[in-house]
Design a protein that fits this description.
Strand order of the largest sheet: 3-2-1-4-5-10-9-6-7-8
CATH superfamily of the largest domain: HUPs
Number of domains: 2
Shape: globular
Number of helices: 9
Oligomer: single chain
Distance between the termini: 23 Å
Largest sheet: 10 strands, mixed
Order of helices and strands: EHEHEHEHEEHEHEHEHHE
Helix content: 25-40%
Strand content: 15-25%
CATH topology of the largest domain: Rossmann fold
Structural class: alpha/beta
Radius of gyration: 19 Å
Length: 282
């Protein structure tokens, strides 16, 4: 089945890196990549490469946007072509979130892939990334640090923390299952037992349902006690040298606590590995 991937770009190095990562991630899949540039969005063209020629005066946002997308397509033409991949460009005037949400809905996008500057994902420190991860609905988001380079390995793993208090829907986990298959990575379900209590009946049922949802991919269940969610996830990733982090976003759930300003300031939790953000689906 063809995958549909939306990649926002501001013509920076980290957005180009996200595109290359995406192409490698789906190299074995038929895939359409929608490259979107949003103009007249505050700050989103600030890192654009110079696009005007000598003699041009005050090019419009639309011209800058379209020329930038043309240059990306030219850059792709120099790479070895993958017959499974097609590319579409979108120049959108309006707000960043509106542009992404509207086109994700319009094209039935399976995943939004963002590049972040530097060596971490900046979910809580980058205004643009925060807006997208918090406000775009019904579509999962993958954030890739600029300097991250993926090398295939046999023991790759995705850490997936959960409190097991609310059941998951199968369609909410499709991006995680696809990502696990594409990367050949096992899913490590992590429960942070902050109260040092046994799982209650509802949590046990949710754990079994989750295992059933993930039955087609390699997965295992792990428990940490006597620690906070943010610290527990950080220590688990560091101790195992894990490759990816997957989080399920609910307004008042684990995600909001993990990336709250207090949690970030307390232990400076800003993952230096790709983070897949799963969304609540109605």
């Amino acid at each position: 089945m063809e995958k549909k991937i939306l990649i926002p770009t501001n013509f920076s190095k980290h957005s180009w890196n996200a595109l290359i990562f995406s192409m490698n991630l789906y190299k074995k899949y038929a895939c359409t990549f929608y490259l979107i540039n949003v103009y007249h969005s505050q700050g989103f063209l600030s890192e654009a490469i110079p696009l005007s020629k000598n003699g041009d005066t005050n090019p419009s946002g639309k011209e800058l946007s379209e020329k930038g997308l043309e240059r990306i397509m030219q850059g792709l033409s120099f790479r070895k072509e993958n017959p499974n991949h097609t590319f579409e460009t979108i120049s959108f005037q309006g707000s960043l979130v509106d542009g992404i949400q509207e086109n994700a809905d319009k094209f039935g996008v399976d995943l939004i892939i963002l590049g972040s500057r530097g060596d971490s994902v900046h979910i809580n420190t980058s205004e643009d990334i925060s807006k997208i991860t918090e406000d775009v609905e019904q579509c999962p988001v993958l954030v890739i640090p600029e300097v991250y380079e993926w090398r295939e390995q046999n023991n790759a793993e995705i850490v997936f923390p959960t409190n097991l208090r609310i059941p998951f829907k199968q369609k909410e986990l499709l991006a995680l299952i696809d990502f696990s298959r594409s990367m050949g990575a096992a899913v490590r379900i992590l429960y942070i037992n902050t109260e040092n209590k046994k799982l209650n009946k509802e949590q046990e049922e949710n754990r079994e349902d989750l295992k059933q949802h993930l039955k087609e991919v390699n997965h295992s269940f792990h428990i940490l006690t006597q620690t906070t969610p943010a610290t527990g996830v950080h220590l688990f990733i560091e101790s195992r040298d894990s490759n990816f982090l997957a989080l399920y976003q609910r307004k008042q759930g684990f995600f909001s606590r993990l990336f709250s300003k207090s949690a970030v300031s307390e232990i400076a939790f800003d993952p230096k590995l790709p983070v897949l953000i799963l969304k609540e689906v109605q």
